[in-house]
Amino acid sequence: MLKKIVAVLLSSFTVAALAVPLGSQSVLVVEDGTGKVLLEKNSNVQVPIASLTKLMTAMVVLDSKPDMDAPISIEKTDVDMLKHSTSRLPVGAELARRDVLQLALMSSDNRAAASLARTFPGGPAAFKTAVNAKIKALGLSQTVIEEPTGLSPNNRSTATDLVKMATAASTYPDIRRITTDTKDVINIKGRQVEYHNTNRLVGAKGWDVGLSKTGYTEEAGRCLIMRFKSAGKNATLVLLNAKANSARLMDAFNIRRFVAGPDGEPKVMKASVTRHKKAAKSAKRHRRAA
To answer: For position 3, what pLDDT does the model report?
Structure first.
């Protein structure tokens, strides 16, 4: 009886009262299916969203029912001149649209995302019109998206809107599949190049991820959208503006532990976080907007 009373009291407390340590500026965790808010922190504050934008780009492109086998050539106009982010897609490379979408979502390649908008039926102007229509259709009242990559700080949203966007994106089988691939090998100018998912939790021990997208720019900080299953419970999390990749990872682990509850199995947390911290350090030299 006492346990039931405590559970009821805890369910009415705020995140601060629950003492779940969260380093991200904005956080929202929602139970899939019911829409019940499990954790919340600054969920209605509008902030830059970096490459979380690419989920919208992917939805709009797929909505146009394009020929996924059609070749797309990477052009100079696809090169990032705003942040000068790196890419392993050289100008002149030609790939099938399905491979370009794979790189835009899984590896968060900015040239890939830019080329998808450039080759959208009707061109970039038609792409932007389609994005605005999609934003309206999904009821994303606090979302502004001006370009397809997320490099612009003018691409802004709230955690509340982004949960809606993640829910919509999860209805696309291609997006679910691509964002939960751990890696892929793509033919680039006759050379087999291996690409990896920017979210190292995808495929990691103890994680059952159904949708994923990371983001990073200086203005947006480290961001993450992820739908996951923990102890039989399905949830969607949005993390915005974590100051470091390790902070973003720690938030994700703490949230998974919270969602799992006392009967969950968060025992791998310490070892996994340590491993991901090491991975983050080794990758720091090659930081790019993602």
So the answer is: 43
